[in-house]
Design brief:
single chain; 438 residues; alpha/beta; five-stranded mixed beta sheet; 16 helices; 16% strand; globular; binds glutamic acid
Length: 438
């Protein structure tokens, strides 16, 4: 049988699938899962894609129309779980790629969550507060019939933070009369989990710390370059500072901020506050600060660092940037975003024996804490933040161990991509095979 759906010329979904399949197929001992049960072939396609029109009124009273999607990729391990991305660049292929990655990531957490992803081609930062609310209500008007705590549980992603999740939750409650855990990443007052906001960024830094430890190095005192200035990047910066590292960069759409003396905790607090209160533009936040240089049009990878944490978006760090980082002596790369390294960049790091923690492992702390939020909601309980953060470190530790175990270490070099793909695949394959051909 040939592939039923047409693949776009440059398909992110194809890029992600090809990359994972290549490592899994060379890993051996998957023959039965592959030949007899065709697990990889099954994983190439999602269970279903729900596509719908989102119609809403802007502040001028004009009708606006967008596309909305929910990719329910695989619920072999648990309810579909993964974020919603509201951004003009979103299309079906992007969500298929993110859904595929999510299946492996969620499997690696060891928690009972399947993989899903959704979103809409609408950029939230271009909307007023009231427009965002109406957009979320319009999205939920269609989506609510497809979700539920044991069916499909979305969370945030680019353009969707606790505020949007609150609006989505309100719309769902209004439409269904149900006040239960249909979404995660909720504001605390709606049953959100203390520590969920920090979880992805903190987890990335914990993963990077363990990668260094594997090389008998420490994070304390290391120079860390971070891209992005959203939720993942800012909390990664916060945790890196707490652990004694020097944070040299953050970035936005217009360029990057170079903190020549290292980012201070006080400035980072101000940036986080501004982001939470909607007034966030990195270049405005750092203007006039001493020791900070905003480089318009530049990339953080121009700055020499020991640890690189790409936390912005897919394919943001290319082969040329990787060569610069390698030349400057980078020791470890941990992906805060999903697949931020291009194939060229990935190959360059592997050839240079620089370990790369792939997003499906390094940024899994966010969705892992979403799974904890689901447990908290199912128990009708409220957990304290420290409990969450302790569990987060435990989960990241076990993902790191699984990656190392399945990577097949050579001369001390750990191929984390391989480790993550093989470990994730084994878990998915076991669950899929155990359920027969369905
Ligand atoms: N969007 C995040 C991710 O890429 C979080 C998903 C979730 O919490 O469900 O993993």
């Amino acid at each position: 049988m040939t592939e039923a759906t047409a693949v776009p010329a440059t398909s992110l979904h194809k890029q992600a699938v090809d990359r994972a399949e290549q490592t899994i197929r060379t890993a051996g001992s998957i023959a039965e899962a592959d030949d007899r049960w065709r697990v990889l072939d099954r994983l190439r396609r999602p269970d279903r894609v729900i596509r719908f029109r989102v119609t809403w009124l802007d502040d001028l009273g004009k009708v606006q129309i967008n596309n909305g999607w929910r990719v329910q990729y695989s619920n072999a391990l648990g309810p579909y779980k993964g974020g919603l991305r509201f951004d003009g660049a979103v299309d079906e292929d992007t969500l298929l790629f993110l859904g595929y990655e999510q299946c492996f990531k969620n499997a690696l957490t060891g928690l009972p969550i399947g993989g899903g992803k959704g979103g809409a081609d609408c950029t939230m930062r271009d909307l007023s507060e009231t427009e965002r609310m109406r957009f979320c209500q319009a999205f939920m008007a269609e989506y609510h019939r497809h979700g539920g705590p044991d069916i499909d549980v979305p969370a945030g992603d680019i353009g969707v933070g606790a505020k949007e999740i609150g609006y989505l939750f309100g719309a769902y409650r209004r439409l269904t009369g149900l006040h239960h855990g249909v979404l995660t990443g909720k504001p605390l007052v709606l049953g959100g989990l203390a520590g969920r906001a920090e979880a992805t960024g903190y987890g990335v830094v914990e993963f990077a710390r363990l990668m260094l430890e594997e090389q008998d190095a420490h994070l304390r005192g290391q120079r860390v370059a971070i891209s992005g200035s959203g939720n993942v990047a800012l909390y990664a910066a916060q945790r890196a500072l707490e652990l004694g590292a020097r944070v040299l960069t953050l970035s936005g759409r217009a360029g990057f901020a170079h903190f020549e003396d290292g980012l201070s905790e006080a400035l980072l607090e101000r940036i986080i506050d501004a982001r939470e209160n909607n007034g966030h533009r990195l270049e405005d936040m750092v203007r006039g600060e001493s020791g900070v240089n905003f480089v318009a049009g530049g990339e953080p990878w121009d700055v020499a660092c020991d640890v690189a944490l790409p936390c912005a978006t897919q394919n943001e760090l290319d082969g040329a940037a990787a060569e610069k980082l390698i030349g400057a002596g980078v020791k470890a790369v941990a992906e805060g975003a999903n697949m931020p390294l291009t194939d060229d960049a990935n190959d360059a790091f592997i050839d240079a024996k620089i370990p790369v923690g792939p997003g499906k492992a390094a940024n899994a702390g966010g969705v892992a804490c979403s799974a904890l939020e689901m447990s908290q909601n199912a128990q009708h309980a409220t957990w304290d933040k420290q409990t969450t953060l302790d569990r987060l470190d435990g989960i990241i530790g076990s993902i790191h161990r699984a990656c190392v175990r399945h990577a097949g270490t050579e001369d001390g070099f750990v191929d984390y991509n391989r480790g993550a793909d093989v470990a994730g695949f084994r878990k998915l394959a076991d669950a899929i095979i155990a359920q027969g051909v369905v």
